[in-house]
Amino acid sequence: MEKIGENLEISKSEYNKALEYYKEALIIKQQLFEPEHLSISDSYMYIGDYDKAMMYVNDSYVIKTKKLGENHIEISKIIKLLKRLYTKLGDYDFTLKYQRKGLKILQNTHGKYHKDIANYYDSLAASYYLKKNYGEAFSHIKTAIAIWKKVSKNDIPPNYYITIGNICAATYRSKEALEYFKTSIELTKKTFGEKHIWVLINNYNIALFYHSIKEYDLAIKQLKKTLIFGENILGKDHFELARCYKLMGNIYKEKKEYDKASHFLNKALLMTKKGLRVCLT
């Protein structure tokens, strides 16, 4: 446990340095920019002060819409930040409200068929998925894929397959979900290279799939592979891997191997208690 603690202290130190950097950047931005500048609310979001981030971004929305009108393309940038904020706060009704506004602005600018429109439908599908409205989520990701195929000769973006895979997994279409995650891995490697974060996400999703059908040995094998890959691209004991440790612990708990379960669950808990955010989803 001492070695784990030492690694966690290193991670915590790196996290604190990053936090101090964002705080210093915020002070500089406040000196350089008007209060409604988006980078100020963005900085508040990065340091975790969501109330102030929301206050500044709402002020920016009011000021910019008065100057430019509600349908100006610049307003879509504010809406994008509002979407991120409401998603972090778990208020998916407001997330979807602003996403629909953003979609309307982009359609007025680009028309109905554009890569940005396809990506927006994927984002909407992800929000409906988080809201557990899987019917709407599936409808929107199908629209995203249809638009992409119409406007681009390139492969469908790998993240689309993550979205549809998550929807299939949530609606008990496990075999389909597995195929979508595997497809996303192959496309990610082809498009972005072997060491992209989406490869990590999909490997974790595959482990979740095996866990959901109680194939515990396959899930553990997949998680070990995911952890090795994650350590190679992110560093050992990086906070992004905490969900992997938690899932590993839960699997061993279900297998009634309690010593191993305790080891992995404690490791995940220590990471969380050190104030490190977990964002592997």
Helix/strand layout:
Blueprint: H1 2-32, H2 38-46, H3 50-68, H4 73-88, H5 92-110, H6 115-130, H7 134-151, H8 158-170, H9 174-192, H10 197-212, H11 216-234, H12 242-254, H13 258-273
Task: Write up what this structure looks like.
With 281 residues, the chain is an all-alpha fold. The chain is 80% helix and 0% strand. The chain has helices at 2-32, 38-46, 50-68, 73-88, 92-110, 115-130, 134-151, 158-170, 174-192, 197-212, 216-234, 242-254, 258-273. Helix 1 packs antiparallel against helix 2, helix 2 runs antiparallel to helix 3 (50-68) and helix 3 runs antiparallel to helix 4 (73-88). The longest helix is centred in the N-terminal third of the chain and has 31 residues, at 2-32. The protein is globular and about 60 Å long. The relative contact order is 0.07.
